[in-house]
Amino acid sequence: MKMIEYAIRKTDGKQVQIGNCENIYGLRYEDRNKVIASPGCTSHTQTLNLHWRLPFPEEDHILPGEYRDRGRTRKSYPLQGYVLDGAETIPGEFQVSNHGLAINVTCYHGVKVPKGSPDLRPFFYGREPVFSLYGIKNTVTGIQALVCCNACVNLWTVEIKEILEYVTDPELKSRLEKYASENAGVPEKKFIRRSSGRHDKPIIQ
Ligand SMILES: [Zn+2]
Ligand SMILES: [Zn+2]
Predict the structure, then answer these.
(1) What does the pLDDT read at residue 195?
(2) Considering only CA atoms, which of 84, 103, 82 is closest in space to residue 94?
(3) Dist. CA 93 → ligand 2 center (Å)
(4) Residue 106 lies in a domain
(5) Spatial contact of 150 and 131, defined as CB atoms under 8 Å apart
(6) CB-based contacts of 177, cutoff 8 Å, min separation 6
(7) Is 84 helix (H, G, I), strand (E, B) or coil?
(8) pLDDT (0 to 100) of residue 183
(9) Which of 7, 44, 141, 154 would disulfide-bridge 35, Cβ 3.0–4.6 Å?
(10) pLDDT in tens, 8-17
(11) What are 186-195's pLDDT values in tens digits?
(12) 42 lies in a domain?
């Protein structure tokens, strides 16, 4: 089944790629009516729980569908100092490698160090932000924030107000505050419900 991928931009009639499955990296939520879904593609304006691109002020000049970073590695916003409550109870996984040897690591998202062995001795050596704001999600109860772990790319849905204080860009913050005060914009019965599963995890060899 073909999922949401292509849409026609209303201003110039150009067909652009806006996302795949629930990952709508090519379109901001407030721009959703600037494009119409291409024939055969699911309507993004009628679908709940999509992962919309963040409204970065520095990207205001870019047209819908023209953002260059695509897929799961799209631009996100580091949340310096934020720790997602209980994140370690849902571990993820990532891989490290060196000269033909690879190690699959259970990720506790910076909350705790994975268990080692005499030959494998993990430790923290820095304080990089582990959690980033990844996008927003139009849920049946309103717009929520999507937070990702930068190490393993797990995603969580949290209330926007939970992360606002970690957003230091004043313009981005005010846009997020506006989302938090909106409802999802379309009557619930018109929405198509989507599974919450992710389909775009990186391939692990
Ligand atoms: Zn899918
Ligand atoms: Zn993680």
Answers:
(1) 45
(2) 103
(3) 7
(4) no
(5) yes
(6) 160, 164
(7) coil
(8) 63
(9) 7
(10) 999 999 999 9
(11) 444 445 554 4
(12) yes
User: For residue 116, how far is its CA from the centre of ligand 2 (angstroms)?
Assistant: 17
Residue 111 domain flag: no
In a domain, 101, yes or no: no
Q: For 24, phi and psi rounded to 5 degrees?
A: -95, 70
Among candidate residues 104, 115, 183, 111, the one with its CA nearest the CA of residue 143:
183
Ligand nearest to the CA of 201: 1
Total domain count, the chain: 1
- Quote the ligand 2 centre to 185 CA distance (angstroms): 32
Residue type, 161: K
Residue 89 — φ and ψ, nearest 5°?
-75, -15
Cα(61)–Cα(48) distance, rounded to whole angstroms?
Answer: 27
Lookup: tokens for 28 = 């901001």
Distance 105 CA to ligand 2 centre (A): 10
Query: Is residue 24 exposed (0-12), middle (13-18) or buried (19+ Cβ within 10 Å)?
Result: buried
Q: Which amino acid is at 75?
A: K
Q: Is the ipTM of this complex over 0.85?
A: no
CA torsion sign, 184 to 187 to 188 to 193?
negative
pLDDT (tens digit, 9 = 90+) per residue, 143-172? 999 999 999 989 999 999 999 999 999 999
Q: Which domain holds residue 48?
A: 6-79+132-190
Question: Whole-number mean pLDDT of the chain?
Answer: 88
- Joined tokens for residue 117: 């062995």
Among the bound ligands, name the one nearest to the CA of residue 131: 2
What gap in Å lies between CA 45 and CA 192, rounded to an integer?
10
